[in-house]
Amino acid sequence: MKDRRGTYTAERAAALSGVPKSTVHYWARKEWLVPSVSPTRVKLWSYTDLMGLRTIYWLRHPKPTPDGEEIPPTPMSVVREALAELDRIDLDLWEEERGFMVRVDRAGTVHVGPIDDSKPIGSQLPLENLDLIEPFESESGIRGPNLVAPRPKLRIVPGKLGGSPHLQRTRLETAALAAIARRGMPRENVYRLYPRFDPGAIDQALDLEDQLTRNLEPVAAAA
């Protein structure tokens, strides 16, 4: 049975992956990536689907080389093979204090290894391979966070809290803090509401949620 840990709505899947929401829905309709938790009614995507969305976007978009040439999109047959490899990843590797890099190359091969083997990609998409865990930026300017440590004091664990971002070593979700702040509560009062939690971690949680909200601002569809 495939591992379906992590449960994300289209809005959350788009914001976390860095792929525009319109594109996420378009790929679901085309059956390029059908949401694996729930494909009908209220569609729900899994943690593996987040990596799949980044995989499709990167492989299917042409990439200019430093010499001015253009690397053409990878055929969908190869993309589907990469998605099938992602589906076989053992998500037990993603524990609270552990992380593994997941890379896909232009040939559609998926590589999994210790996080120490992973190199930050900065703001530029690499030409030869892409680390699917590191921050991902689409051509529309949407930037999805690191899918293990979206901020230094935050974590995403597929089997914990439905894969929701949360304060490290706690069950306090960033979305819950943002909901309180958006009702107009001053940040100092949020700190007082959670006196046992690190104010710096709360700041990072609210910053992450602000980023995810910006990721959902209307952009042109990019299929």
Describe this structure in words.
The protein is globular. It has one domain. The protein has 223 residues and is of the alpha+beta class. The protein has helices spanning 10-17, 21-30, 47-60, 76-87, 174-182, 187-193, 199-214, and strands at residues 63-64, 70-71, 100-105, 110-114, 129-131, 136-137, 143-144, 154-155, 166-167. It contains 7 helices and 9 strands, in the order H-H-H-E-E-H-E-E-E-E-E-E-E-H-H-H. The strands form 4 sheets. It has a 3-stranded antiparallel beta sheet. The protein starts with 9 loop residues before the first helix and ends in a 9-residue tail after the last helix.
Question: Which short descriptors sum up this protein?
Answer:
223 residues; globular; three-stranded antiparallel beta sheet; alpha+beta; 12% strand; single chain; two-stranded antiparallel sheet
